[in-house]
């Protein structure tokens, strides 16, 4: 998406119209990708500088390129729990699912703690639909983060950026499976705030 804002000078009263001066061009800087450790995908662009003259700035934002790069590393995590089925014995059924993303070549997946809470067995669905068994590595209820490790080699993994370099108002993309369904959904927004503390 390209946004261009231009302000022009105006004058009051009679007189010859001024000769228009061509506005200087401002070449947009390339967009960079950064990943934050909050279960979502963050895309940020360098801070646009104001151009000389009356032009403000130009921002280019090609979400499709970010999606193509990151989507293979976005997965769905399934939480299965054991239930007593009377004479039939215990039975494992799906108790919930949520979004995760692969962070390394060993198959570690970051997801939310509430997604894996109470689970006795886990599965990961890759972006190509393939299912893999997974085990819980660890979880933290306070930050609502968890890590599971899936079996086999991942299709892709994300690479972390510098969260300290993020700036309020920068554009962001979220890729995942809202409510555990609608796999591969993409939406966009901006960074609304920084340095927020978790309640204790």
Which features does this protein show?
12 strands, mainly beta, Thrombin, subunit H, six-stranded antiparallel beta barrel, disordered N terminus, 200 residues, 6% helix
Task: Describe this structure as you would to a colleague.
- This protein is mainly β and 200 residues long.
- The protein has a domain at 74-150: Trypsin-like serine proteases (Thrombin, subunit H, Beta Barrel).
- 6% of the residues lie in helices and 38% in strands.
- The chain contains two helices and twelve strands, in the order E-E-E-E-H-E-E-E-H-E-E-E-E-E.
- The strands form four sheets. It has a six-stranded antiparallel beta barrel. The protein has a two-stranded antiparallel sheet with strand order 1-4. Strands 2-3 form a two-stranded antiparallel ribbon.
- A hairpin with a 5-residue loop joins strand 6 (90-102) and strand 7.
- The relative contact order is 0.20.
- Residues 1-15 and 21-46 have low confidence and may be disordered.
């Amino acid at each position: 998406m390209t946004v261009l804002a231009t302000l022009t000078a105006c004058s009051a009263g009679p007189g010859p119209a001024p000769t228009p001066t061509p506005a200087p061009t401002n070449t947009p800087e390339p967009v960079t990708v950064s990943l934050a450790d909050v279960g979502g995908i963050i895309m940020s662009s360098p801070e646009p500088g104001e151009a000389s003259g009356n032009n403000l700035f130009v921002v280019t934002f090609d979400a499709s390129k970010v999606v193509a790069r990151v989507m293979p590393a976005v997965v769905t995590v399934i939480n299965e729990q054991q239930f007593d089925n009377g004479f039939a014995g215990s039975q494992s059924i799906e108790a919930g699912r949520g979004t995760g993303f692969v962070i390394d070549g060993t198959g570690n997946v970051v997801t939310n703690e509430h997604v894996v809470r109470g689970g006795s067995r886990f599965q990961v669905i890759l972006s190509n639909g393939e299912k893999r068994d997974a085990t819980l590595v660890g979880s933290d209820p306070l930050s609502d983060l968890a890590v599971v490790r899936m079996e086999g080699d991942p299709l892709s993994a994300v690479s972390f950026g510098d969260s300290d370099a993020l700036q309020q108002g920068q554009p962001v993309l979220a890729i995942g499976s809202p409510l555990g369904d609608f796999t591969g959904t993409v939406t966009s927004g901006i960074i609304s705030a920084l340095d927020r503390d978790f309640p204790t």
